[in-house]
Amino acid sequence: MFRGVIDMNIHEYQGKILFKQAGVKVQNGIHCKTVIDALSAYDNLGSKVVAVKSQIHAGGRGKGNLYDPKTGDLVMEGGVKIAFSREEVKKYASNIIGRKLVTKQTGPEGKIVNNLYVESGCAIAHEYYLALLVDREAKSILIMASTEGGVDIEEVAENTPEAIHKIWTHPTDGLDVKDAEEMADKLGLTGDSKNDLVSMLLSLSNMFVEKDCSMIEINPLVRSESGEMIALDAKVSFDDNASYRHPWMDEMRDHSEEEEVEIRAHEHGLSYVKLDGNIGCLVNGAGLAMASMDVIKLYGGEPANFLDIGGGATRESITTAFGIILEDENVEGILVNIFGGIIQCDMVARSVIEASNELGLKVPLVVRFSGTNHVEGKLVLDNCDLDVHTSSTLSEGAAKIVQLTRGDK
Amino acid sequence: MMSIWIHEESKVLIQGITGKQGTFHGTMMDEYRTNVVGGVTPGKGGQIVELPNKNVPVFNSVSEGLEETDADVSVIYVPARFAAAAIIEAADAFEEKGGGIIVCITEGIPILDMIRAVARVDGYPNVRLIGPNCPGIITPGDEGGCKVGIMPGFIHAKGRIGIVSKSGTLTYEAVAQTMSVNEGQSTCVGIGGDPVNGTGFIDCLAAFEADPQTEAIVMIGEIGGSAEEEAAEWAANNMSKPIVGFVAGSTAPPGKRMGHAGAIISGGKGTAEEKFVAFEKAGIYVARDPSEIGNVLVKALKDAGLR
Fold first, then answer.
1. Interface ipTM above 0.90
2. Is pLDDT of A4 > 80?
């Protein structure tokens, strides 16, 4: 069982391959893994000015900083650089490859840059913002664009929402050309630029549907001095639930960019998100798993993770779940909260005992059972050698585990 | 007495009845005395499925099943990649018949499939879709009742509290909370945790408001989107019956999907706090701890002179 709720992200250089295929104008560029690659890319592109761009699955690269991963020293400010010579390409590429890029979106731990994109320079007349995403309220695909490109769009949305223009595609008929033309007008585009944008919007909305995208973001989309509309950036993500009909997705997947433990959990039918606290949680159901975290916090504790074992949990998946929780060095106690529906509490009880013995559980454990076979489940736990506390309500269980992890045993 | 959308005597068809999930849950539904009248599996028409209380026929299509059984409800237990087509098939068939309820339990349906399926259902005013990615809908009766979904039947009892929730097990928690203060349920609806789905909070609130059996409502939301805020605003202007609300995900970090595809705080929007504030502003009784839903419900009922 593979429960897909993780979006699959790709790199900018991969997004631009898809753009090209879809008929969206991009600059020529070459994907590089080394400084030597970057230099030969510069020679091959034949453009005096090039952009040297760090490739990681996070936004804010331009304003990010590169650090030496060993010493933590600042190597260079800005993860995207314009190079005016071969020497500059060499300098920037050396400063980027293998370094840690910290941006607003990566968090302080940053990401190691293993991929680089060298792209022909572009004479920019104006920068725009363009995005396609699923509008859950309108239940259709929303196309959002603004003349305020190249900046943090969330700030634009906050300060000048009227500068963001919106159109929606039809659920079955796709994008109406009239709507695309209206968008071009709103952005003040005329002549060839207008035609370029209309054709780009039609291509992108087709690509969105054909490739099962969950988001396409181009920031900036530019109007060149010759009036062409060019996608200078490409942030594309896909709906993992549709990956079965897109075998190519596997080839584009960069595992080094994904959280290894979240993927491992995923493969076992578990849904796991690591947090910063010290109380591990193992729960069935996403809503109840969130609520368990919330109640731990309400009682003065800090949850170490979100973990939903799902409706199809087995002994194996529960053991895996326990292992994942205990891998986190911050974990000082575990709360198991099960409301049995399809899942039977006594099965969970036996799995918990088995996993605890197998993994040599050393931290306090509180188990709350309700629903299907909760009495039998409690009986199994009461009669085992494990030091486990049982409770009948969530608040009681949360209060208990908070108390135990505080050390006042 | 009434209840909403499904009633003790509702006739239920099961799409995917010969599959593992369909057979298992068909059995559980029948044990709860749900009136299962047949199933649909393309290519297996003419077969018989044995349920504990009766044997039911399998049909090749929903329209054939409706013609033969006159079912009011169809519940979908087919794998994610076929689920949207199953919804559309059921919607077309019910439209032909004059209306019906579709309940889709399946998790993990591609979002663009759901956009197309929901658009089809929305074109048919007499056809309602509940879900997907939900526990289903249940109307407890005097003995058993009508259970259309995967929830454990035995935790419920017939009563006057309507429950609507985005979550599965958290709905069971809410049910248990009503039971802990000696209140039963009129109908419990799981609307599901997907970003694009059929029936929403407002549909449920409107139906509960109109239902003579329902006297108070428990509404369980979670982070992501703005359905809770919209429902709260609607409730402030349209609901006379008291509502108790809880929102899961106060401690969820931004930008991470919390199990449900729709449970994500994106661009700083969709936080639990915003939703709680919207609830309070709308006069909804708020429980910050789901274990307190029962006590808050008692207060709400007392304030309304219902206890």
1. yes
2. no
